[in-house]
Amino acid sequence: MSKPLIMVVDDEVDVANVIASLIKDTGKYEVLTAYSAAEALEHLKKNKIFMGLGGNRIRLIFLDIKMPEMDGLQLLAEIRKDFGEDIGVSMLTAWEDEEKWDKATSGFVINYIKKPFKSEDLILTIENFFAGKEGKMVLDTFEKHIGKREEFRSK
Predict the structure, then answer these.
(1) CA dihedral in degrees (22, 23, 24, 30; nearest 10)?
(2) Which residue segments constitute the domains of the chain, with CATH numbers given?
(3) Engineered SS bond to 40: which of 2, 9, 48, 54, CB 3.0-4.6 Å?
(4) pLDDT of 68-123, one tens digit each?
(5) d(Cα 39, Cα 94) in Å, to the nearest integer?
(6) How buried is residue 68: exposed, middle or buried, by Cβ count under 10 Å (0-12/13-18/19+)?
(7) How far is CA 9 from the centre of its chain?
(8) How far apart are CA 94 and CA 58, in angstroms?
(9) b/e for 111-139, b at 16 or more Cβ within 10 A?
């Protein structure tokens, strides 16, 4: 049986490669890197599962927000429109404000990890997702967003 496939999408090549290495080092997952939204969409198209099965070999995506041409939130909307909600998406970004949280949670993200990140948070996100806790993760992220909303408004 093949290992679950995770994609890292970040235009900062060094950051994407570090994240990919952390994931590969667990020995439990295959990893693809995409350095642009266009490249990420190509990977998603190539890994679509046909023959009436639906779905995608890519099961989880770590997604940066600030990227040229198409940002991560625009890419998230495209993923949900073209590939559905079966693919887990975790934002992994230095950019955080109420609008970004609103867009991310409306796209049913499983986590919103702020850079600089702790490798433990990244690995825990992966383990929880593949342990079948996706629904709880989406709900927890939304609840975290509600708390953040108060924080943003009090500034």
Answers:
(1) -160
(2) 5-153 (3.40.50.2300)
(3) 9
(4) 999 999 999 999 999 888 899 999 988 666 777 777 777 788 998 988 899 999 99
(5) 21
(6) exposed
(7) 8
(8) 24
(9) bbbeeebeeeebeebbebbbeeebeebbe
Going by C-alpha positions, the residue among 145, 120, 144, 44 that lies closest to residue 87 is: 44
Q: Mapping DSSP to helix (H, G, I), strand (E, B) and coil, where does residue 90 land?
A: strand
Cβ contact 56:80 at 8 Å: no
Determine if residue 54 is left, alpha or beta; phi over 0 gives left, psi from -120 to 50 gives alpha, anything else beta.
left
3-state secondary structure 113-140: EECCCCHHHHHHHHHHHHCCCHHHHHHH
